[in-house]
Design goal:
The protein is mainly α. It contains 22 helices and no strands. Helix 1 runs antiparallel to helix 2 and helix 19 (437-463) runs antiparallel to helix 21. The longest helix has 39 residues, at 2-40. It starts with a helix and ends in a 10-residue tail after the last helix.
Length: 539
């Protein structure tokens, strides 16, 4: 009974410790991961090194590939640059298994007491995440020690020894146990460390632990595969690369296992025996060895692997349209020259607004086969990346004139994003309308006003013509002729249409006002930026 309670308590402390460690390491490393990746993607060797560091810091395959996918989506990295980081991140995570075989009992007890007190009473508040990570590490190491003690006690029971005898030689069963345990517990690192601990207690023999550890990678690939179904395009490429990493590794090493078992050729088992005679250490070494040949092979053949990913999980239409075409990280070195390219990127989004209008105009047929929602997300992605790029440029050493221009472009991108978002809402509402003739006429007048404003805005951004700028002021004014006419038309039909139609027209009018407000601010920004283009009355 005491052995069972020891195992139960140890498992509880272990999983709590793993969770605390992972959560706090994310907070510690989250602000540094971008810097590490930015510096570490220059060459394959540096990508491997920094990938291992990131894997060691996060201690979670899921966290690593989600971070990598987010950086790829934000165009901080290309998929080609992200893959080696992901591959070698598995090696970094595996290195943590070495902590289990080290004689850390006294250090663990000290860290558990010290970090627990600091964490509970919020000492070292500035480094709370670091203290939390140390506390989590101490908890799971102490929990593993309890599990080891409890499993050692179980070995004394005859019925337990009989169960172990039934499992002797059942190598595939060990593989399935490792796979299912990892999938059900959703923690590859956790099951791996538990397996190593139980091996040290004599629960598993050499063949069983080898196959069980291989099974944990198969279980991890199952977890990643089911998670990948929530993603599409480039993000799914990243997640599926982790799935394929584990699948290829499992197939390769299981094949080597049976070649060594059936034909007596010294391979992986012989290697870990040469490294150590202790079963626990052999299991820890095997955890690291598993990741190295697969990571090395996939890094060497990364281009071919990338083509496989692109063929089976191609980028989505939104990702393709949402890519930056004119700006990249290299032009940050010359921020004075970046303004022109940033302006072209913003202009590309402005030109794309015409497609929104064409989507719902009865007298216009667009040849663009991309649906409205996809275009909306791609436009917002381009503007978000552009604004992030401008923010990075402003953090550099730039002149006051360049800084002023970049801030103006930052403001322009933000206002254009507001226009695009409300225009999307207007288009969605128009696609869902079902109006009587009087209400339809007012709705179409709102659409005409919107179309005029958008086309004039695009013309101003493209040519910066004073006449068009004056027209833009007139169109976007709250007291302009367009808005006054729409209000009069609404009053004229108010008694002739249903309540729902009145509410619908009011909603359209509200959206139109939200479109015109940022357009008016954009017009004012152009006047401030180009004082020679101030509109002249009667021009």
């Amino acid at each position: 009974m005491d052995s069972l309670l020891s195992i139960f308590a140890g498992l509880g402390l272990f999983f709590v410790g793993i969770k605390l460690l992972t959560q706090n390491l994310k907070q510690v490393s989250g602000s540094r991961i971008k810097t590490l990746i930015d510096r570490g993607n220059k060459t394959a060797l540096s990508s491997a090194f920094f990938g291992a560091i990131c894997g060691f810091l996060t201690q979670s395959a899921r966290a690593l590939y989600l971070i990598t996918a987010s950086f790829v989506s934000a165009e901080i990295l290309t998929v080609r640059q992200g893959l080696p980081i992901l591959f070698w991140g598995n090696t970094g995570r595996a290195l943590f298994a070495m902590a289990v075989i080290l004689p850390l009992n006294r250090i663990t007890m000290f860290l558990l007491g010290f970090s627990g007190i600091c964490y509970a009473y919020d000492y070292f508040r500035k480094y709370r995440s670091v203290v939390g990570a140390i506390f989590g590490t101490a908890l799971f190491l102490f929990g593993l020690d309890l599990v080891k003690t409890g499993t050692s006690g179980f070995l004394q029971f005859p019925w337990f020894q009989a169960c172990l005898e039934q499992l002797r030689g059942q190598n595939l069963a060990s593989f399935v146990i490792g796979m299912l345990a990892t999938f059900l517990c959703q923690s590859h690192v956790g099951i791996t460390l538990l397996a190593i601990t139980m091996t040290q207690s004599g629960i598993f023999d050499q063949y069983q632990i080898i196959m069980l550890l291989y099974g944990t990678h198969a279980g991890s690939s199952l977890t990643s595969y089911f998670l990948s179904r929530q993603f599409d395009g480039i993000s799914r490429q990243i997640v599926m690369s982790q799935v394929l990493f584990n699948v290829l590794g499992s197939v390769f090493f299981v094949l080597l296992f049976y070649i060594e078992l059936w034909f007596g050729i010294p391979l992986v088992k012989a290697l870990i025996e040469w490294l150590s005679a202790d079963l626990g250490k052999q299991a820890a070494y095997l955890t690291v060895i598993f990741t190295i040949p697969i990571a090395l092979t996939l890094t060497v053949f990364c281009d071919s692997f990338l083509r496989l990913l692109e063929r089976n999980w191609p980028p989505s239409a939104a990702e393709t349209l949402g890519k930056l075409r004119y700006i990249n990280s290299h032009i940050l070195e010359q921020p004075e020259m970046a303004g022109f390219l940033i302006e072209k990127e913003i202009m590309r989004v402005a030109e794309g607004l015409k497609s929104h209008i064409e989507e719902i105009c009865p007298d216009q047929k667009t040849t663009d086969r991309v649906d409205l929602k996809t275009r909306h997300f791609s436009h917002q992605a381009v503007l978000e990346k552009t604004r992030a790029f401008i923010a990075d440029a402003l953090r550099g050493n730039v002149s006051s004139d360049t800084s002023e221009r970049l801030m103006s472009l930052q403001n322009r991108a933000g206002l254009l994003g507001a226009v695009e978002s409300e225009l999307y809402n207007l288009c969605v509402a128009f696609q869902q309308r079902n109006l009587s003739c009087p209400a339809e006429l007012v709705a179409m007048r709102i659409l005409e006003a919107t179309e005029t404003a958008i086309l004039t805005l695009v013309a101003v951004m493209g040519s910066k013509n004073g006449y068009e700028l004056e027209l833009l002021f007139q169109v976007s004014s709250e007291k302009g002729s367009y808005m006054e006419e729409i209000r009069k038309n609404y009053v004229a039909i108010e008694e002739k249409v249903s309540v729902n139609e009145r509410l619908f027209i009011l909603d359209l009018s509200t959206i139109l006002e939200r479109i015109m407000a940022p357009i008016a601010r954009l017009a004012s920004a152009f006047v401030g930026l180009f004082p020679n283009l101030k509109p002249k009355a009667g021009e």
